Amino acid sequence: MRRLLGIAAAVLMGVSAGAAAADGQRAPVQSVPGWEAVGRLNIGGRAMCTASLIAPDMVLTAAHCMYDIRTGRAVDPRSVQFEAGLNGRQSKASRRVSKVAIHAGYQHGRTGQFQTGTDIAVLRLERPISADVVRPLALAAPPERGARVDVMSYSHSNATSPRLQTACQVLVARQMSLITTCRVDLGASGSPVLQSRPGRAPQLVSVISSKAELGGKRVSLAAPLGRALQTLMRQAG
Beta partners for 52? Predict the structure, then answer.
């Protein structure tokens, strides 16, 4: 395989970051049924990631988002807040986090090895969000190579409203990693990789771990979900 260089896509609030344009097409998120399940994760008032509501009281994000960017230490779950459907200054629902479950195979701070396949965390919210307000994303089977997927994310360049990238192509689909042509910016860690059908709510198939370069082209690395997600949901419950 051509040389792959990955960079974690979490971001410190207020730190400048170079924007990465989307591969594929842009679309207004308000046109996507159920987009409100995607939200911004505010971490200790200093950093941000993206996360998705997958149960009334649980959200999915990247494991590395749960570590302080400066010190490498695990963050206090109580310092994390999920803002579902944040658009401008208003969100559909806002909840503090009470518990974090991180993939057992994830080892934060390891260098020289990609941990995309284990870069998953499930966060339990202090109170459930009613399905009448926000309906959780449904899960779907992992996409195959060549499939088209979408990514919805918050980032440093669009911190208060999500950006939707559509019609990205899956370049690599393996048990421990997914590589797509979506080009994400810093802050997009934890963003959902989605499969969409016209007029129907998108389904969650993966979660963004980092942005990367493959053969000189910008790509994104994502973690397949599978049984690991079910295990983490039990641990967080």
Answer: 38, 60
Span 160-213, pLDDT tens digits: 999 999 999 999 998 888 999 999 988 899 999 999 887 788 999 999 999 888
Average pLDDT over residues 124-138: 97
What residue type is assigned to position 129 of the chain? I
Sign of the alpha-carbon torsion through 233, 199, 84, 10: positive
Query: What is the pTM assigned to this prediction?
Result: 0.88
Measured between alpha carbons, how far is 157 from 163 in angstroms, rounded to an integer? 10
Unique residue bearing structure tokens 């986090």? 97
